[in-house]
Amino acid sequence: MALYRTVMVGTDGSDSSYTAVEGAARLAAAFAADLVVACAYLPMRGTELDRARDQLGEEAHQVVGSAPAEDTLRTARDRARAQGAMRVRTVAVPGEPVAALVRTARDCSADLLVVGNRGLRSLTGRILGSVPSDVARRAGLDVLIVHTT
Q: pTM for this one?
């Protein structure tokens, strides 16, 4: 197994994504690696935001701008530190989740990208793709898909 110096994990504020953060934090602690926690968000305003909130319900936290992303990152940082990660950096990244995670992993020179498995086994995920499978195809670095659901 390769030695990882920078582990990156994505979170969207869901319980399953926090499970992935905790798994990534344990790995970062074991390797004495830096941990980068990223949260992608889609900035929206006005009627577009209202419509998205109506349609997405509990998933609306992903589309209401960087303030919820920053809250998500604070929680993720605290959970990562509780798992032993010593050097934790957080970053809110505008954009679609897959592109934002892949771009951020390259920008921070991550050796390992960790994502949860949510959506991987759903019918929608199999037909349209899912964040974990799309990240694994596009990342160009080691990807760990943590069982979170």
A: 0.79
Amino acid at the residue 133: S
CA distance 69 to 92: 6
- Cα 75 to Cα 7, 13, 18, 95, 129: the distances in Å are 18, 8, 9, 21, 28
Mean pLDDT of 43-72: 70
Cβ burial 40-67 (10 Å sphere, 16+ → b, else e): bbbebeeeebeebeeeeeeebbbbbeee
pLDDT of residue 106: 95
Structure tokens belonging to residue 136: 């694994």
Cα 44–chain centre separation: 20
Q: What is the mean pLDDT of residues 129-135?
A: 74
**CA-CA distance, 29 to 49, in Å (whole number)?**
38
According to DSSP, residue 146 is labeled E
Contact 9, 115 (CB under 8 A): yes
